[in-house]
Amino acid sequence: MKHLSRLALFLLVSLGISGQAISSERGTTSADFLKIGLGAAAAGMGEACVARSGEANAVFYNPAGLAGVERTLITATHLNWIAETRYEALAYARPILGIGSIGTSLFLLHMPPIPAMDENGIPQGEVAAYDLGIQFSYARDLASWLGATGLAAGANLKILHRNLAGLQASGFAADLGAIYAVNDHLSLGLAGMNLGYLSSFDSEPEKLPVIIRTGACYSREFSAVHGLAISTDVVQPLDNSLRANFGLEYTFYRLVSLRIGYKWGYDSDGFQAGAGLRWGNLSLDYALKLMGVFGVTHFVSASAGFGASIKELQRDQAQRFLREAERLYSQSRYEKAMGAVERAVAIDPEDPTALQLKDKLRTVVEMLKMPAGQPEVTEEKKSEPLEGATPDELEEKGLEVSP
Questions:
Q1: Residue among 287, 296, 57 at smallest CA distance from 156
Q2: Topology of the domain comprising 2-306
């Protein structure tokens, strides 16, 4: 029932936001470079990624996806876009124990220099044109804050700059998103992108291309050999009609991934496909997109992971709490030891040593709090007080409490 209520609330928020976007004016936004999907792995799946997490490039579709990053990642992407333009992106993500995940990204759409002429057709050299964005991201699991197991939220802050033949425009934008893991296989995503302001090349400020995304992803490993992921996004741009993205990914031995996607409702986008190769903490991905009269565009991404994973760091922290609990226990400071072992169990609920010590400490603490004069189970336990007893003395009294 709890999962169903959260799911219903999630869908209601999704539909409500999308409905507001549908009623907005269309064809009135600029900075179209913010509509271009980034990341070869995402492109291979038709950019249906609002409910997927664990990659540095996830922030381009839903900032909450950063919460699933397992270790420090650096990802670079190159895209051959239309009309001889190129799109470059560099993304960095780092999980921090007890804080969440932080990230920063740089993305640049540029083209070769453009020949310039005056009103008489006389060459005046060349001019440059580019769109630049710098993005700062933060995401975290909300379980420790709200008790909402499986819910993660994130945000991006973007600084934007445009240059067209010496004319300048700048602005700021924010992205907000959430991902809810219904179970180990199904997740739901919701994101609002490009909420902000952009100055104009002339006098009037321009609207950014606000996009609302909501969708789902189902992933499963059927054995150590085969894995499958299916995802779909419903996309509502502020300046256009409702659209949908679909993606499928098959993974073989966690080394090779084959992907195919389709984008419905777009003017030129349609089928997309790609493949990926992963070896340890290194990965290389490629994708292509069929764009009708604009031909074929190509994506290439390379990613590298560094340092210990967040799970390894969590286990190390749990072991430190456990060692502290054992030290306090040996000093007969049982209540403080209980606090330390509870922190260890909260981090690693399946650690058998921590669970065993927690059970023994609970027995000791309950015995120490027993009212005076209450009958004991044995005469030996009744004859001597337990307050301040050492672990050896407690063990002699029949309490198996040694760590």
A1: 57
A2: Porin (2.40.160)
